[in-house]
Amino acid sequence: MSRNVLSLFSSAGIGELGIKAKGWPILISNEIVENRCQLYRENYPNVDNICGDIWEKKDEIIEHWKEKTKEPPFLIYATPPCQGMSSNGAGKILREIRDGKRKPEDPRNRLIIPTVEIIKKLRPEWVILENVSNMKNTIISDENGEYINIIEYIYRELGDEYVGCPEVVNCADYGIPQMRKRLITIFSRSPRGVEYFKKYGKFMPPQTHYEEETFFAKKWITLRDAISKLPPLDAKEGKNERKDFHPWHFVPIMNQEKYWWMENTPEGCTAYNNQCVNPKCLYQNNRLHGSNIDDGLHSSNKDTPIYCEKCGKLLPRPTLIDKKTGERRLLKGYDTAYRRMEWDKPAATLTQNFIFEASDKKVHPDQTRVLSVYEAMIIQTIADYEFSMTIDGQSISKNLCAEVIGESVPPKLIEIICNQIEKIEE
User: Fold this and answer.
1) Under a CB-based contact definition with an 8 Å cutoff, are residues 6 and 121 in contact?
2) In terms of pTM, does the model score above 0.70?
3) Greater pLDDT, 408 or 109
4) Other CB atoms closer than 10 Å to residue 311's CB: what's the count?
């Protein structure tokens, strides 16, 4: 059997780089957003990219696959989005929905339904589903309007033909320089896959990296390991780019106030906790920023001081002039915002907002700037593969770069999973 692949919710195809590295042919992909489809076609010119809503395109996808090959897919790889996840238990969420105490689910959560329908019609040997770790707590309404946990729905629909389970995976545990927890759900109906699962009860390979090095495993790859040797940048005019080194090694320029906040922020700390920089005072015990939980809602403190409690001078903390009152006030935000990263830990989870200093833990450990797009490509392991950030020979926008990187799966993780599947099938 050929190891042909169908990709659903493919975005720009970054996760599929791990599949491509295995030499497994991706025959068809599906993505709803046009500019992602354009970027996908640029990088996968031989793949039939069907652009559009999977609800509307599911029959076309199924028929197109059957026209291309008489064989079922070896692998269906899908990353259906799930919004509005909760850390509460799925049982509690289900009760609240049925009692009318919780709003119905985000319609995007139901995208698993056409995904499973395609799986049932094409009957792949293997299925890989990837999503945020709290997907396991998502409740959806099925085709009959009945509410059900999303994982239970998948089990119910695939039936006894498939075996598998969801596993929460931290990318750092597999040699990726990022603390990124994802829910990886792998199913198989392959005879060897079924035999393997009955013996071991899961499909993910053993963890290879740990917080501390052991006799059996390596230490996590840190931010220092990943990006410390790159040319330095500064968020000031004339110092913010090194396109001669790499076309995506550049950062935006910070305005003067934000630069002042961040240049006074130590490694691993947030600008919200900066202390007095008045040379005549330098008081270091001003109250710190924090948060509260009130009636189950998490909110940041509103009374964090912005002036030194000893000398009265303005602290280098995130503030602005209120247009209504004309007075300076604290910017709303948690103490994860305007926070520097730490050299000797893996990076925090990259999101689509990594190009903004207010994003959670995305300011460089000791240079006053955010991450460059190239650094994000390294942290997300995209730089380990050949991938073009161009459409028709023109570089895509920085914002589109950030979006497709932040929403992607590290391709190294997908390659590791595919290596495991290959070993099982040997």
Assistant:
1) no
2) yes
3) 408
4) 12
Total number of residues shown for the chain? 426
Task: Enumerate domains of the chain plus CATH numbers.
Answer: 5-215+410-425 (3.40.50.150), 231-371 (3.90.120)
Helix (H) or strand (E) holding 141: strand 139-141
Residue 276: per-residue pLDDT: 98
| Dist CA 123 CA 66 (whole Å) | 12
Give the integer Cα–Cα distance in Å for 110 and 83: 10
The more confident residue out of 102 and 3 is 3
pLDDT in tens, 226-252: 999 999 999 999 999 999 999 999 999
Q: What percent of the chain has pLDDT over 70?
A: 92
> Minimal CA–CA distance to 131: which of 188, 82, 167?
82
CB atoms inside a 10 Å sphere around CB 406: 17
Contacts of 187 (CB under 8 A, 6+ apart): 126, 127, 129, 154, 158, 162, 163, 164
DSSP labels for 353-403? TTTSTTSTT-B-SSSSSB--HHHHHHHTTGGGS----EETTEEPPHHHHHH
Helix (H, G, I), strand (E, B) or coil at 307: strand
**Residue that wins the pLDDT comparison between 137 and 40:** 40
- Picking from 39-48, 100-109, 191-200, 237-246, which range would have the lowest pLDDT averaged per residue? 100-109
HSE-up (13 A, CA, CB side) for residue 215: 0
How many Å apart are CA 246 and CA 253, to the nearest integer? Answer: 18
User: What DSSP line would sit under 75-131, residue for residue?
Assistant: EEEE-----S--SS-HHHHHHHHHTT-SPPPPGGGGGHHHHHHHHHHH--SEEEEEE
Q: Which of 37, 38, 24 is nearest to 414 (CA)?
A: 24
In which element (H, E) is residue 59 found? Answer: helix 54-68
What distance in Å separates the CA atoms of residue 417 and residue 203, rounded to the nearest whole number? 8
